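Re: the request from the purification team.
They wanted to know what the chain is likely to look like in 3D before they choose a buffer screen. I agreed to run a prediction and write the result into the notebook, where they can find it.
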Amino acid sequence: MRRIRTRGLVLLAILTAGLWSAWYLDLTPGSLVPGEGALSVAREFLASAFSPALHAEGTGASLLPKVWEGIVRTVTFAAAGMSLSLLLGLLLGFFASSAWWEGDPAGAAGPVRRVLRRTVGPSIYFATRTLIALMRSVHELLWALLFLCAFGLSNANAVLAIAIPYGGTLAKIFSEMIDEAPRDAGNALRASGASPTQVFCFG
């Protein structure tokens, strides 16, 4: 009952804010009906969409080679950016996972290893989590604008603008996949004193 009452208050507040905004902006249903000039522009726009120009205005040169060149460039930038983001995601995803430092059934024998697991591991984990959150919270267009203002127009800036946000997204996905993977085999190997390579391969 309390949850329903709270939800009703929230909906009432949203409705009140919407009505006040409409009154403040003097919105009326009549303002949504376009005039004859707007309708003619819309008709011209839709007509042009179904009959695109295939030649450059004035020169008469064909636009198809330019279109093909733009497609190839777009695919090239996308492939380079996603390849780099995949590498970033794999690297950061490992350090953003808690599987490599947490929950050792062998007790992390030795005082040095215990200190590393209690201090270095969590520090790297939280720092990497913060980094990938910052990477994926900024849109690639903003990264591109930042690099453009800082370093000028170049192909490397375009690739980095794609790789940084998607690298952060892939790092989050990979870290969650690692954390959710079964650890029984890895824990058994740690308890038996297996080498770090064997432990990494099995979990």
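For the purification team: The mean pLDDT is 80.
Please add any questions underneath this entry.
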